[in-house]
Amino acid sequence: MPLNFRFDRIRSTSFGVGHEDDEADSFSLVPVDAEVQNALAEMAQGTWEAIQGLDIDGTEYQPSEKYGSQEYVFLPLASDLAARLRQLHEAANMELNAQALSHPASLFCYFASFLDQSDNRLTAVRRATQFKGIVKSRLVQFITDSMKLVEDDTFKLDRDFDMLIDSERVHILRPSGFEAIGQLQEAICAAVPANILEIGREMEFVDFASIGEYAQRHPRAARYLASIRAQRETQNISPNLLTAACRKYAIQFQQTNGRIVVMPGSEMEFLNVLDRRMYELELVEGRPERYRASSRQRLGN
Amino acid sequence: MNSARNHEGLKSARFIMVLSSISPLFILWAVRGSKLIPNAYFVGACVLLVIFPNAFLFLRRWAAKKQNDTREIVIGKAEDHRDHLLVYLFAMLLPFYTTSLADWREFSATLVAVCFIIFLFWNLNLHYMNVLFAAMGYRIFTVYPPEDKNPLSGKQSIVVITRRATMFPGQRIVPYRLSNSVYWEVG
To answer: ipTM more than 0.90?
Structure first.
């Protein structure tokens, strides 16, 4: 998948940090010199090379999936799940604050924003771990042939970023970093009523009230709901096939006024079915085996 | 999400740039002279007050270029404020020029008034008000950010010193930073 940005034609580089404040999180730009700008550009390019080294095409991010520490997944920039990062990428004339690094413990991320000669913008974001942690330890530095303590506050940039954002997509190298910075958990839980409404509209033969209540209390179920809605595969589900699948996988439900009502305790299994995570294999004749997939990938069409 | 506080920064630089902006007054004083202070000291002080701040201004611009201290600015609305120079000329230069420096009380009062003006220019971020920019063919625009409802977008207006005749909404420019509110587009 191509990146809508030219690293060899960078026109401007800005650096910024995200703070956890008492009231709300805030972002601000911090002036950096030419050497740091070059280092940031190298980090961003290294991130893109790492992404290409993993999987050139990548797969679309799904909140219900469990990802490894480094996997190339992407998300359309217009997605609701990318709302916070879209704001960061599209922010114009962000506040400049040279004092933003005065309280390193409150930093939760740092980012670089690049503009190329064609006015394409690229935003690279990294969760602050080393960057804020390094000030807690004392550094040593070789000056001439003796080791000396560095007493100044020192910030250490990482080797690469967690994600790159261009005009169309969020290209994610570390899904955990994306989820933390994008505040996915909060966004997904907040989106439960909207997701229930949307899925319920397409599956009027299911009473989603109890599932909605369950998802409000269980973040994993909220993630499944977000994933089911994002897949846009609920529209043509057959009521008969769904009830058959429920019976097959021992999901407790009853039918009231022609609608499927999932019984307490079976909500998660029901969401597993809708999220296409239940499957059966029969490799030994007469002994079908049923499994629940913690991760799955669609094959063919 | 964005802090409403204005972290202006570069306070010393802004102060020296204010001195640079009132350097025409020191030139006028140097030409007029004063009966209270020997010419060698008075004119010397005025010359220093002209050379040092302007040298600093160009040093700041040189440092910004060397460090590639640029920032992408998106134009929401831009207003050409060349007329501010007229206000500056009539509100400051002419009144102070006509002030008598013949006795110590007048002289002290004038110095105090200049200090007030310097503080106001510094505090109100009017350090871009400089006849030198106009002489070099630059225009001064006040640029407002786009109204995009993005909580992370800046809310403060900034000043851009540029040779452009116009700026239009949505245009992206990459000027050098003189201070957090004043930017210089070279070329």
So the answer is: no
User: Is residue B50 in some structural domain?
Assistant: yes
Provide the angle, in degrees to the nearest 10, between the axes of the packed helices B11-21 and B39-66: 130
Closest approach of chain B CAs to the CA of A103, in angstroms?
Answer: 15
Is the pLDDT at A39 greater than 90, yes or no? Answer: yes
Closest to A49 in 3D by CA, of A63, A70, A29: A70
Token pair, residue B86, equals 């007229």
Q: Which residues contact A160 (CB under 8 A, 6 or more apart)?
A: A43, A44, A46, A47, A50, A126, A173
For the ranges A144-153, A156-165, A204-213, which has the lowest average pLDDT? A144-153
Question: In this complex, which of B1, B67, B148 lies closest to A92 when CB atoms are compared?
Answer: B148
Query: Pairing state of beta strands B182-184 and B158-162?
Result: parallel
pTM of the complete model? 0.79
Per-residue pLDDT at B120: 86
Asked whether residue B139 is assigned to any structural domain, the reply reads: yes
Q: Is residue B1 part of a domain?
A: no
| Nearest Cα residue to A47 out of A174, A156, A155, A166 | A174
Cα dihedral B55/B60/B61/B65 (nearest 10): 140
Whether A14 sits inside 8 A of B177 (CB atoms) is no
> Would you give the distance in Å from CA A126 to the centre of its chain?
12
Give the span between the Cα atoms of A19 and A89, in whole angstroms: 16
Query: What is the 3-state composition of chain B as percent helix, strand, coil, each rounded to the nearest 5?
Result: 50, 15, 40
Pair of tokens at residue A248: 């097959």
Mutate which of A95, A108, A123 to disrupt the B interface (most B C-beta within 10 Å)?
A: A95
Place of tokens 């690293």: A7
Asked whether residue B2 is domain-assigned, the answer is no
Q: How many domains does chain B have?
A: 1
User: Which residue in the set B7, B76, B154 is minimally distant from A98, CB to CB?
Assistant: B7
Where residue A133 falls among pLDDT bands split at 50, 70, 90? Answer: low
Rounded distance between C-alpha atoms, residue B58 and residue B60, angstroms = 5
Q: What does the pLDDT read at residue A151?
A: 66
| Residue B181: closest CA among B101, B73, B91, B100 | B73
Closest CA to B170 of B142, B144, B141: B144
Q: Which domain holds residue B131?
A: 8-184
